[in-house]
Backbone:
């Protein structure tokens, strides 16, 4: 009820505002690529257009993807159709990012947390669509953990430069592991510590792909 009454109308309004801009950007990218053929200056301009417009198109897709997984999770739409629309948005986003041909060293997992809003850098979660795929995975697998695939380490955020940071992190991980055995705390155990290795996500090519009855970008908007 809350989703239909509160969140869904806002997502729809956001989508209706973003979608026309995304379509214009897609058209502009095609024109820029056509004009750039064999011309170095035009090619440089086309690259700038590509970088700017892909971000606009990704935003529109993200809104559609969030609406789809929320509809599936809330029961406002059949789960398989919602997940199919979400998977379609993720695949389109993945293709857009692949077209940018970003350098691997920019987008790879570093394993070195920093006390910022993006503890493992911005380009790794952005290029891998980490948050998109995590949301999809939570709904597809029926995850009930509040901090599933959590990236934020409380120790790194609270005492990033303490000389005792290593010891405190070890204690936090041990406490997290111990609490995960307690049924009433299991759902929150992952909140105490960040990942030690790159989080495992379902491959983009293996996301649910049931064919929806409407175009994915319009299913729940």
Residues:
């Amino acid at each position: 009820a809350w989703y239909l009454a509160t969140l869904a109308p806002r997502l729809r309004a956001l989508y209706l505002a973003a979608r026309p801009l995304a379509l214009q950007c897609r058209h502009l990218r095609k024109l820029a690529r056509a004009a750039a053929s064999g011309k170095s200056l035009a090619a440089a301009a086309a690259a700038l257009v590509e970088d700017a417009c892909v971000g606009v198109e990704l935003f529109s897709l993200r809104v559609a993807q969030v609406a789809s997984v929320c509809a599936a999770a809330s029961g406002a739409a059949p789960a398989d159709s919602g997940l199919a629309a979400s998977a379609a948005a993720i695949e389109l986003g993945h293709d857009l990012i692949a077209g940018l041909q970003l350098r691997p060293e920019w987008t790879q997992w570093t394993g070195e947390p920093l006390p910022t809003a993006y503890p493992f850098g911005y380009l790794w979660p952005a290029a891998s669509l980490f948050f998109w795929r995590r949301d999809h995975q939570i709904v597809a697998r029926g995850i009930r953990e509040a901090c599933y695939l959590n990236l934020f380490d409380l120790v790194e955020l609270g005492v990033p430069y303490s000389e005792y940071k290593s010891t405190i992190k070890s204690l936090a991980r041990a406490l997290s592991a111990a609490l995960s055995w307690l049924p009433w705390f299991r759902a929150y155990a992952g909140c105490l510590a960040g990942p030690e290795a790159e989080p495992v996500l379902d491959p983009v090519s293996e996301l649910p792909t049931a064919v929806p009855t409407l175009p994915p970008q319009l299913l729940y908007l």
Observations:
- Helices lie at 2-36, 40-74, 79-100, 104-107, 123-128, 130-141, 154-158, 165-179.
- Confidence is low (pLDDT under 50) at residues 210-221.
- Residues 90 and 132 are 7 Å apart (CA to CA).
- The chain has eight helices and no strands.
